[in-house]
Write a structure and sequence with these properties.
Low-confidence stretches: 1-5
Distance between the termini: 21 Å
Number of domains: 2
Helix content: 25-40%
Shape: globular
Strand content: 15-25%
Structural class: alpha/beta
Order of helices and strands: EHEEEEEHEHEEHEHEEEHEHEHEHHH
CATH class of the largest domain: Alpha Beta
Strand order of the largest sheet: 12-11-10-13-14-15-16
């Protein structure tokens, strides 16, 4: 990854592909402001005094619910980056006199409206969509829709060149757009940095620390953490009742643990999303039965659709010691006030992506943070 000494070079006029513009949809304003702060700081280091890279835009709605996209300055010839959070349910609009919360469908429509508003005048369009629209509906089992694949093809047809997503539920959805750029990024370095900062007394050796995958689907990301940290890896197998469907899924009958003993060890569990949180809590309670010392959970998208009370109870009873989640999607004010929740800031990481792509630089070192993690571990050990 580029060092602080090098970031000023990102804004050399001779190197960039085209003038940079950041179009931030309504649900991503907070993250967009943080990304813009990094970009303007680096621009200043490169000798360019730019107040903001954010292109003013909006999607006003009529009382019937219809909307339109507006971009309020010229974007002709610009390298445009559209930032969207389809998971921000706090955004509202008036619909026949009632307050209506925006769904992922509404957010995705607004993205398409703003791309339309650019009117094909941009030099290139990149969409930064951390949580993929329709990403959990990634494969077909019966006669059912393939929302994510269809959405990606829509964006391709609208002239989008690149998609940047984070910790996709199943990155194989990119097979729907084989000729378009698609980067699925894992913020592993940022997660470990936050973990070490907030839990400084962790002992990272096989006798005191362990990584546990919550299911077989999360094995790759947990395998990565175990590998770079040099500790053991365990996993849970979700035994489901495939004869029934409850709330759109087959209910879990039991979690079966596979791996070495967790007795007396701190355990780190990572997954892509905490939705209801039932699976994560079931695993935490099971690990406590097996005498695990402390349990720390991480999910890239900590959305807590069923509320926070179950996790409050788990923390108060000493089962869970902390939950980490990124700022890639909306976090409720109630969650952010919880002492047991630790936020992982990924804004600088996204800013690196934008700067690198804007200058047609290789992003391989940004995608694979192995060297950064090695340096982080060495610094922690005082080497």
């Amino acid at each position: 990854m580029a060092s602080q000494m090098e970031v000023g070079d990102f804004f050399n006029l001779e190197n960039r592909v085209a003038p940079l513009g950041l179009v931030v949809t309504e649900g991503a304003q907070e993250l967009g402001a943080k990304i813009d702060a990094h970009l303007t700081k680096w621009a200043a280091e490169g000798g360019k005094d730019i107040e903001t890279f954010i292109v003013e835009s909006e999607c006003p709605r009529f009382s019937s619910g219809d909307s339109k996209g507006l971009i309020k300055s010229t974007v002709r010839g610009d390298d445009l980056f559209f930032l969207i959070d389809v998971g921000n349910y706090s955004c509202t609009y008036d619909l026949f006199g009632e307050k209506n919360h925006m769904s992922p469908d509404d957010h995705f429509q607004d993205l398409k409206r703003l791309i339309q508003a650019a009117s094909g005048k941009a030099h290139r369009i990149t969409v930064i969509m951390p949580i993929l629209y329709g990403g959990r509906q990634h494969r077909r089992n019966y006669r059912e829709s393939l929302d994510c694949a269809c959405a990606l093809q829509e964006l391709q047809a609208m002239g989008v060149s690149n998609i940047i997503s984070f910790d996709a539920h199943d990155a194989r959805v990119q097979n729907a757009i084989p000729l378009m750029g698609f980067d699925n990024v894992m913020p592993s370095y940022q997660v470990l940095k936050a973990l070490f900062h907030n839990v400084p007394d962790l002992m990272l050796d096989r006798d005191h620390f362990m990584v546990v995958s919550p299911d077989e689907g999360a094995m790759n990301r947990n395998m990565y953490y175990a590998s770079v940290l040099g500790v053991d890896l365990g996993m849970f197998y979700k035994r489901r009742d495939y004869s029934r469907v409850v709330n759109g899924r087959n209910p879990i009958v039991a979690h079966e643990y596979l791996g070495t003993s967790v007795e007396g060890k701190d355990v780190f569990i990572t997954d892509d999303i905490i939705s209801s949180g039932e699976s994560m809590l079931d695993i935490a309670y099971e690990l406590k039965k097996q005498k695990a010392r402390r349990i720390f959970c991480y999910a890239t998208y900590a959305i807590f659709t069923n509320g926070l009370d179950p996790f409050d109870k788990a923390v108060n009873s000493g089962v869970v010691d902390g939950v980490f989640g990124s700022n890639l999607t909306y976090r409720s004010p109630e969650l952010r006030r919880r002492e047991w929740f630790y936020e992982v800031d990924v804004s600088k990481y996204i800013a690196y992506f934008i700067a690198a792509i804007n200058h047609d630089m290789s992003i391989s070192s940004i995608i694979d943070p192995h060297e950064k993690i090695k340096a982080l571990l060495a610094k922690r050990k005082g080497e």
